[in-house]
Amino acid sequence: MSAQDIADRAGLSVTLVRRVLRTPADCQTVRDIARTSADAVLGIPLPARRSPGAPGLTDSTEASRLLADLARAGWPATTLAQHLDVNPRTVAEIRDKRPSLHLDLALRIRRLHRDLINLDPAGYGIRPTDIARTRAAAARRSAACNV
Asked: Strand, coil or helix: what is 110?
């Protein structure tokens, strides 16, 4: 949160919040803060963070294989990224053998593969040219891996 966000939520001036957040130099003493100001700042609920449903990291080998299967089926990385709620570059990195990923994302990839692998991408609004491009790129990647 920025100092302005804290000030807005606490009902304080942004200057006061910046003074509270500023760390004093070595030669300066720490200023006292009025109890009401401290309570106003400390009473702000923090914005919700997206915490993974399953903690920890796992090997990306299975997720990489599943994403490569979906690419061979014609599902573009941008569409998969939208379904997974991640950046398309993240999908590409995992598909191209990122060493590890969050367990939560691995589980979401597994569910997505299960849901999409038997479906035709054209039936879900994916343009035929995008399907062909995705399939061709997947074929090139698998040929490069087999050499």
From this structure: helix
Chain segment 25-65, per-residue pLDDT in tens: 666 666 666 666 666 666 665 555 555 555 678 888 899 99
59-88: b (≥16 Cβ within 10 Å) or e: ebeebbebbbebbbbbbbbebbbebbebee
Provide the whole-model pTM: 0.61
Q: Which 3 state secondary structure label does DSSP give 58?
A: strand
Whole-angstrom distance, CA of residue 10 vs CA of residue 104: 34
Q: Which whole number is the average pLDDT over 116-120?
A: 91
